[in-house]
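Many introductory courses stop at the sequence. We go one step further.
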Amino acid sequence: MDASKLFACCFLLLLYILIAILYISVPGTIVKGYVTHELTGKKLVYRLNGLRVFIVTICIFVCAVRLGLIPADIMYLYRYEYMIAANIVSILISVALFLRGNPWADATSSNHNRLTPFFVGAERNPQWGLFDLKMFFYVVGGTTLMLNIFSFAAHSYLHGHLSVDHCVYVFLFAFFLLDYFYHEQVHLYTFDFLVEKVGMKITWGCLFVYPFIYNIISFAFIATTTHQSKPNTLSIFTLAVAILVFFVGWILSRGANNQKFLFKTQPTKRFLNRLTPQAIGGKLLCNGFWGLSRHVNYAGEILMAVGLALCCPANWLSWIYPVYYILLLTDRQRLDDKRCYEKYGPLWKSYCYEVPYRIIPYVY
């Protein structure tokens, strides 16, 4: 391995270390979440500094580029090395979490059952003081994704292939990530934090899938423009449709998540100071966004993915992203419906009667 590739492999590890140091040291808002500790029953406490860590890391990356320490398109130049390194790190962390869970403690468990915690996790929310591993993984995933998107766009720019479409895509994804980190507390009340445990699924998802597979449309842009003398630009109408679809999805997703968060934290307060909450049995919100479908936020996330894919519609790689979301969220919807039925019983049946559509209103 030559020196440049060795440096590239070390760069990703250094990036993880940098984000970890920032996550530990950068001040944040201390809040109580919705999830309770499995042993004490007390609500878990989080330090929310993801947006600050995200911005500081991006600024450090830009400064390193400006000082000539790294090329602007480093994440593109060594993309395959980074993918391999991310997979290796994911496996090593998953093994460590698996061994921490003491899989051999139960002598009656089969080998299959003992391996299950490796994939789905043994602990739901491992914490050490204010260091929450699940939250940290999401900060790493989102920050590394943004660096990937910037780096791929920089590569196109350096080779004269950066199109208006690509710029729109970068803007929309940057908006998506900034919005996610700005509403960090809201996401403590979503499926990922309520249900998912930390194992290979979460670790690999945050360190590999999130930063690299979510960036697949950047691959599509470069594959489409590489052999062109100058980049083609979509019509204003097509770009307008892409932006419209994205923001309709954002309104559904952000609106639904914020409405549920307000109901969970302040059950009697009106959403946007206008909408009085209506809930079946005082527990299941059934008006506003949550009167459209039982998982209307998933419909919003799918629409955002479609809007991003429409920025580069001619390349089939772009459509892997929304298809992935459809497969992920329809499976999650079934799991969540089953969990809610077990938790709420007859109330859930009443809710399903009141709100018959699962994800897409009037369709599914």
